[in-house]
Structures are given as structure tokens and as C-alpha cells.
């Protein structure tokens, strides 16, 4: 029973696809990757070189330079929320402004060998001000720290709300004030919070570091409820913000900060020392002496696996073969609900569960010898993944959902078989899970299937979208047919014989389809925080190495069962192996 029967899976790329298919897929995905790289660079540049020079002229580092100086040498930086506010314009009296990344960097990286969440105001964008959606982006990063119980580091250089747009970021349940509630929740949960204050720290920016366990201030830093300009206007006093709330005040008088340091570099070094004092990662212990190993098949091959047409099938098990250590997995319940794959494998040496949609035709148990389309949730598949997800929760292992879902089965038979009830059961399990859950939108994320497979409304620790992901209730063509259904015949062709009316209907359907296709763009989703980050398929393995190890880092923060006593073994005993 103690044995976890990991078995090899996968085939060489040239056995899966011929040379022409590989070239076609690679060209398609390379174009997507080029757009992603270009847009990441645009966000990282903030407001441009002129503003970088302004920061340097003050003897300070930019936010990205601080992140790079803070992290371990060679450690990756996994940015989250890169494209929040992407494409969004703010009209300031005829002048159009943008807020790249909502003016804040949020990322996961390693400091002193430990995974941390870093929140850094981008001081090249309106002096690190909070724009619309900046608070929500910060809170999302805090949630990651809270879920995983890993340290949260604040690199504060914030001149408060971007006042011309204050009505969109000050009030509301997740407005700027909610950041401080998250500070308190992290503190109550015992999650280490360390703040470095590097410059402006006004109003809400002043409150942000205070609840942290350690607060360091540079000689250029100040924390104030109101800056000198406001006080001068209100009280006609001749003051400086540094004199009101600089390190002399808050380190030596108010006690609102712990230490003063000369400059950015010294502050970052002090933060690293504080992280070194936190608990070591439990991940090496949880590996049980098994070293991390690369997949037998190159993860970068995922950038050749997916065809341009989202309706074309691929093999979900081949995806797993390029994500799992040694390309080995333990597939459970393979003979039931064959439209779904449920499996366990190691990622970076640590156990993790996976649920994935099977594409293409699958056997139909209700009609022996017949097949039905994959990528859809049927009764048996729903029961299978609900059972597996609950077992992963019970056993305390992280769970990754690889979504490529067109939706639920529909029709008289589906309703009679209680699909609504089974779907609700699955949703209940997703809503009450205590283990770390991560969701990846591989391609399609459609309808209630997106919800049922742990979409963002069910609060996974993180949701990633590939560059080819499509989020919608239904596809553009399908929605256009539904919108113009009364004008179509049984074959969904335009029923009118009038050429002018036919042209009008065709144009209307095309416009609906085009608009919906635009709405499904992953950058649209990321801009409005409907997904956390966009990645290329070939980057997924590296991301999972980060997320799975971070899931095992905290010691004693959640139940992690020894594999000898997993509930998954009972599932294997009842349903048989592969």
C-alpha cells in the first residue's frame, strides 16, 4: 500500500507529430510567444527611460532593480499580474496616461533559499502611485502568501492613490483599504511580513508597512498620513515630508519602524537577513530523499504540441509527460470517465495531483462500441474528478487543474442522469478544499465547465493562462448562432431568401463572432484580473516547480499525509490501476 506506482508516460515528439505538423505548431506558438515577450518588456519599462533616470538621479534603484538585487543569484522571478490594466487608457484633461502593470510589481522569487512573495511599487510610474486595480493586484499577491504561508516582502515607494482616479480605487470592498485588512490577516496567520521603505510613503502607502513584523527605512524614506504639501496648505507650516515622518521620527520617536539604513542596497541586504531568520523550507524533507529530476521529454516541446485550430485534438497525457519528473505518473481510475485524466506525479521531487481534459473522441459507456466527444464534462467524469480532488485534499497534496473544457454535457439524457447534482457536488468540493490548488487554462475555458474545474471564482492559489487560452461562456460562432437563431434554419444557415436581409444577418453574425473572439483574448482577461498571469506552454513546467515547492515550504501550516496512508490508495483498490 505504501508504494506509489509511478509509471512512464509519453512518446517522443517525432512519434506524435510529423515534421510538417511540428513546424506549423511551432510557428503558431512562436508568434504568440513573441507578442508575450514584447508586451512583458513594455510593462517592465514602466513610463520609460526618462523616469528611470529620475529615480537614479535621486540615488535610488528602480522597483525591478530592487527585486533583482533582493533575490538569490540565479533564482527565477515569477511575476503575477503583469498585464493588469493592459490597454487601459486614463484621460487626464486631454492627456492619455497608462499604468503599466497597474503601477506595482507582484512576483514570487527565492530569497535565502525560501520562496517569497514580493510587492514593489513601480517608482517609474507616477512615483509608485496606486491606480485603479493596483489595490486588487496587491491583495491578490497577499492572498498567495496567505494561502501558501510563505513570507511577504513589501518594497514600498508609494505616493498614495493616483488622485485623479481616486474614485476607482479608494472605495469598495476590495479598494485600497482592503490591503491593510490583508496585512492583518497575514499577521494573524503568522506569515512573516517584512517591509523596506525607500522613499515616498504617503497616506495608504504609509499604512501598508506598519503591520509588518520588521520595517526598515532608508535615509530618503518617510511615512506620513499627509505629506508636507498638504500640511502647508492646511496649516501654513513650513515643513518637509522627511522632517514630518522620516527615519529620525519613526525609528527613534514613534517606533513605527525598526531600523534605519543608509540606502537601497543596505535595506535589501537587511531584508535578506530577516528572511534568513525565518523557518527553513520543509520541501527537502517532503521529498523523502528523492531528488528532483527533469522530465524524460523536454518541457519546451509543449511549444510545438498545440495546433493553431483550438478544435483540433492533442494528447493530454503527452502534456503531463513534459511536466512530470522523469515523465512518470500514477494514473487513477483510467477506465471510468475517460474524458478526464486523474493522475499523481512528482514535480521538482514533490508529489502533486493533476486533472486534465482529454481531447478528441472517447468511449461512450452508455452506448457500447460508440464514442462521444472529449473536452466535455459527463456524469462519470465529474464523479471521477470530484472523488480524486477530494482525495488530494484529504491527503494534503497540491492539485493542478489543466483546463481545456468546452462545457457540460447537455440535453434530456444529461439532465435525467442528474448532471446538475453531480456538478454541484464537484463545485462544493472545490469551494471547501484546503490543499493548495492551481488552475491552468491550456486552451478552452468555456461555460460552467470553467467553474467546475476550479476556475478563478473558486479561489485557486493562482490561475495561469497560456497564450492560446480562451475564456468565455461560449465560442463566438456558437453565440452568434444563438443570437440569430430565429433567422436560421435547422442547419443553422440563414433562412431568408432576400439578398439584402441575408447580407444584414451575415454581417450581424460576423460582428458578434468578432466581438466575442476579442473578449476571449487572454490579455483582455489578464487586464481585468480574470486570470493571474499569461505564459507560453513551454514555461509551464518551470512555473509548476515554483508553485509546488512553495506549497510544501511552510512547516506545520497544513496537513500533509505520508504517502503510505493516502486516501488515493483506497481509490486504486476499488477502481484498479492502468
Overview of the molecule:
The structure is a single chain. The chain is globular. Strands 1, 11, 12, 13, 17, 19, 20, 21 and 22 form a nine-stranded mixed beta sheet that branches. Strands 2-5-6-7-8-9-10 form a seven-stranded mixed beta sheet, with helices on both faces. Helix 7 links the parallel strand 8 and strand 9. By secondary structure, the chain is α/β, with parallel strands linked by helices. The model has no long low-confidence stretch (mean pLDDT 90). Helix 5 runs parallel beside helix 6, helix 15 runs parallel beside helix 17 and helix 19 packs across helix 20. The protein folds into three domains: 235 residues, Alpha-Beta Complex (2-enoyl-CoA Hydratase, Chain A, domain 1), CATH 3.90.226.10; 220 residues, 2-enoyl-CoA Hydratase, Chain A, domain 1; 44 residues, no CATH class.
Quick overview of this protein structure:
This protein is α/β, with parallel strands linked by helices.
Task: Supply the key terms.
nine-stranded mixed sheet, alpha/beta, seven-stranded mixed sheet, globular, 2-enoyl-CoA Hydratase, Chain A, domain 1, 578 residues
Amino acid at each position: 500500500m505504501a508504494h506509489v506506482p509511478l509509471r512512464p508516460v509519453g512518446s517522443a515528439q517525432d512519434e506524435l507529430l510529423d515534421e510538417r505538423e511540428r513546424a506549423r505548431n511551432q510557428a503558431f506558438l512562436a508568434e504568440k510567444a513573441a507578442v508575450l515577450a514584447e508586451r512583458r518588456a513594455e510593462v517592465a519599462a514602466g513610463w520609460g527611460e526618462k523616469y528611470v533616470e529620475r529615480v537614479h538621479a535621486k540615488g535610488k534603484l528602480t522597483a525591478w532593480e530592487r527585486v533583482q538585487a533582493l533575490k538569490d543569484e540565479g533564482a527565477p522571478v515569477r511575476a503575477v499580474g503583469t498585464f493588469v490594466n493592459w490597454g487601459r487608457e486614463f484621460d487626464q484633461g486631454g492627456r492619455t496616461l497608462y499604468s503599466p502593470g497597474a503601477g506595482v510589481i507582484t512576483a514570487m522569487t527565492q530569497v535565502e533559499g525560501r520562496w517569497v512573495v514580493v510587492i514593489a511599487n513601480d517608482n517609474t510610474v507616477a512615483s509608485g502611485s496606486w491606480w485603479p486595480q493596483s489595490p486588487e493586484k496587491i491583495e491578490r499577491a497577499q492572498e498567495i502568501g496567505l494561502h501558501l504561508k510563505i513570507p511577504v516582502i513589501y518594497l514600498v515607494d508609494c505616493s498614495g492613490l493616483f488622485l485623479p482616479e481616486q474614485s476607482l480605487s479608494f472605495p469598495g470592498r476590495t479598494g485600497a483599504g482592503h490591503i491593510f485588512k490583508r496585512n492583518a490577516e497575514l499577521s494573524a496567520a503568522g506569515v512573516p511580513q517584512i517591509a523596506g521603505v525607500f522613499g515616498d510613503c504617503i497616506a495608504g502607502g504609509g499604512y501598508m508597512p506598519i503591520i509588518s513584523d520588521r520595517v526598515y527605512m532608508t535615509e530618503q524614506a518617510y511615512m506620513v498620513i499627509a505629506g508636507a504639501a498638504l500640511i502647508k496648505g492646511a496649516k501654513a507650516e513650513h515643513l518637509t515630508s522627511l522632517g514630518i515622518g522620516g527615519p529620525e521620527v519613526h525609528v527613534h520617536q514613534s517606533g513605527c519602524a525598526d531600523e534605519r539604513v543608509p540606502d537601497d542596497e543596505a535595506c535589501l541586504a537587511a531584508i535578506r537577513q530577516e528572511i534568513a531568520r525565518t523557518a527553513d523550507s520543509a520541501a527537502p524533507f517532503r521529498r523523502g530523499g528523492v531528488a528532483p529530476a527533469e522530465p524524460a521529454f523536454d518541457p519546451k516541446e509543449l511549444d510545438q504540441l498545440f495546433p493553431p485550430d483550438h478544435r483540433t485534438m492533442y494528447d493530454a497525457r503527452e502534456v503531463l509527460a513534459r511536466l512530470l519528473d522523469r515523465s512518470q505518473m500514477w494514473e487513477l481510475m483510467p477506465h471510468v470517465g475517460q474524458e478526464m485524466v486523474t493522475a499523481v506525479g512528482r514535480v521538482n521531487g514533490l508529489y502533486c495531483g493533476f486533472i486534465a481534459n482529454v481531447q478528441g473522441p472517447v468511449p461512450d459507456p452508455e452506448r457500447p462500441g460508440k464514442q462521444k466527444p472529449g473536452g466535455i464534462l459527463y456524469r462519470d467524469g465529474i464523479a471521477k474528478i470530484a472523488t480524486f480532488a477530494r482525495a488530494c485534499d484529504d491527503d494534503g497534496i497540491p492539485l493542478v487543474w489543466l483546463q481545456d473544457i468546452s462545457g457540460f454535457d447537455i440535453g434530456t439524457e444529461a439532465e435525467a442522469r442528474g448532471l446538475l447534482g453531480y456538478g454541484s457536488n464537484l463545485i462544493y468540493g472545490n469551494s471547501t478544499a484546503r490543499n493548495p490548488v492551481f488552475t491552468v487554462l491550456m486552451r478552452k475555458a468555456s461555460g460552467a465547465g470553467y467553474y467546475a474545474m476550479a476556475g478563478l471564482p473558486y479561489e485557486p492559489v493562482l490561475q495561469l493562462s497560456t497564450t492560446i487560452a480562451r475564456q468565455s461562456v461560449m465560442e463566438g460562432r456558437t453565440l452568434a448562432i444563438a443570437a440569430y437563431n430565429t433567422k436560421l434554419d435547422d442547419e443553422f444557415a440563414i433562412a431568408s431568401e432576400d439578398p439584402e436581409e441575408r447580407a444584414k444577418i451575415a454581417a450581424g453574425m460576423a460582428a458578434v463572432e468578432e466581438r466575442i473572439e476579442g473578449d476571449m483574448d487572454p490579455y483582455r482577461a489578464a487586464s481585468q484580473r480574470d486570470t493571474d498571469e499569461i505564459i507560453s506552454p513551454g514555461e509551464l513546467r518551470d512555473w509548476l516547480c515554483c508553485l509546488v515547492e512553495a506549497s510544501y515550504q511552510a512547516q506545520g501550516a497544513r496537513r500533509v499525509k505520508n504517502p503510505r496512508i493516502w486516501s488515493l490508495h483506497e481509490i486504486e483498490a476499488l477502481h484498479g490501476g492502468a
